[in-house]
Amino acid sequence: MGPVTDPDAEHAPGERAVRRPRGTDPVELGFTPRKPVPWLAPFLLISTGIRTLLAMLFGAYLDKRELQNALDARIGTQVGPDGGLWLDYVADLGDGFDATYSVAYLLAQPELTVDGHRLPRAQTLVMGGDQVYPSAAYEAYEDRCKGPYQAALPVAPPQRPMLFAVPGNHDWYDGLTAFLRLFVRSRDRNFGGWGTGQSRSYFAVELPAGWWLLGLDDQSGSYLDDPQLSYFDEVARRLGPESRVILAVPAPTWVKSVDHPTAYDSIDYFVRTIIAPTGAHVRLLVSGDLHHYARYAGPERQLITCGGGGAYLYPTHTLPERIEVPPKDTLSRRASRTRAYDLVARFPDAARSRRYGWGIFHRLPRRNPGFGTLLGTLHTLLMLAMAGVAANRTGTEQRLFSVPLVIMLGVTLLGAAFFAQPPSAGGKRHVRHWLLGIGHGLAHVGLAVAGTWAWLHLPFYHWPWPLPAVAAAVVYGPVIGLVATQLVAGYLLVAGAFGVNVNELFAGQGIEDSKSFLRMRIDPDGTLTVYPIAVDRVCHDWQLNPDQSPTASWLTPRTPLTPRLAEPPVTLT
């Protein structure tokens, strides 16, 4: 394999020597391998909610895309020595080390043999969004994304692969500050052994045989800014009827438009106003954001979701079997003609996805111990309030150490209702969210009544004050916390069957297995072959690599990873 055409290659700075680690501790690695994000941890729930709210309220003020008009409007070119190109796509990758590095390790190997196909390392890597979780702090990028990828490919091989990245909603939480610093900087344009090839948060790359790769930044689904549209207007001047386009977008809005009809509007506007007038054809839309592999096939293009780069697994059994794109009920008056797309492949399969859902009962308390502590605390306070009313105690001590019952009941019901997310649900499902949320809250009230009855029949309650409160915190709290966690697990399983709290059902489990990425080949004759690579189980046991060559991965799995194809190769012409 010879060198890849790179417009910046002759100006790229020399590779900095990287000392190979002598151990697996953070001082040797240069970063701290992180555990998977506990998504239902109380403080994380609060902080993520605040970040999301701030992004919604002040996203326009934090938007740096208008300022990017001052940056170079570079249009890249990627062509291999044989006139073709190998291209990788990975998304939703910056989570726990084991899952993230398992995928990064496979991406970095000189060659993979997958179901009899020999697939060399790609010359171009596309990161499709959410390169870090849960926030876009620079330290999080170092520990959860850049560090693992540098460990996988420490320095550039003689044929330096190039990297292009699309920002997702988590990359936007700081207004793209850290994202631009990592992927768009003008100096030290290296990301581990990959060279960074873009000059803005969006990009266009000319590929072999009339193919083009376009990466969009729609600021978490809000809109496409004028400088970005002007940039792609310039790109469009180089397109023609023989051009074929791979469009990388931050989210699979073709699926999300089933419940939110306006979700696909930005992509449809881009295709309709930028691509279509040139006569070019968008043959492949690819996205992450939903953490699984799914492919919808239509009359003119393929719609692929591949968000299996490292984040917790998202279910596939809830996916609609057929979608209409753009949806007929969109409010856009100039939408493109609606076409039907059928779900033809998914990983994991629907049966396995359902089985994963049942794991909520044991994974929820294990992955999110703080969540059980929160529930135990709230139920203990609710029990003390109920016990005070039931025993007709009105003493000063009881009023000081118990929360008024009416307030606690309100907190319980409202908390359960808003946990079901009715304000953000689409109109078609609004009532369903409220009913399930209130039913969940009433179930917790019923549990509190049963817990109070049991507590009043135990000797602790009759001890001199404040010993009952101490006993409640030490004895009642942990027990009721575990029981309440199982109640939440049961609710999530039932609600998930109705399409409510599906994300929480799987986020609470933090499933690291069932990862995926795409390896694509563009032949000199223009044939595009997509190899969807699946990893059933990630590695949790790493060792220093005995191969000390500069480009060899620092860590290797003690038990080899066994990638396979999620479905047979998909061929586009």
Rg on CA atoms, Å: 26 Å
Give the low-pLDDT segments: 1-17
Separation, N- and C-terminal Cα atoms: 24 Å
Helix content: 25-40%
Q: How would you describe this protein?
A:
It is a single chain. The chain is globular. The chain has a 9-stranded mixed sheet, covered by helices on one side. Strands 2, 5, 6, 7, 8, 17, 18, 21 and 22 form a 9-stranded mixed sheet that branches. A two-stranded antiparallel sheet has the order 3-4. 48% of the residues are buried. The chain starts with 25 loop residues before the first helix and ends with a strand. It has helices at 26-29, 42-62, 97-108, 138-152, 177-183, 226-236, 253-256, 265-275, 350-358, 360-367, 369-390, 396-401, 405-419, 430-456, 467-497, 502-507, and strands spanning 76-77, 85-90, 111-114, 117-120, 124-127, 162-165, 190-191, 194-196, 203-206, 211-215, 244-249, 281-287, 293-297, 302-306, 322-325, 339-347, 515-522, 528-535, 542-544, 555-557, 564-565, 570-572. α10 crosses α15 (467-497) and α14 packs antiparallel against α15 (467-497). The chain is built from 16 helices and 22 strands. With 573 residues, it is α/β, with parallel strands linked by helices. Residues 8-25 have a biased composition (Basic and acidic residues). The chain crosses the membrane at residues 39-62, 371-391, 403-422, 434-456, 468-494. Residues 1-26, 551-573 are annotated as: Disordered. This is Metallophosphoesterase.
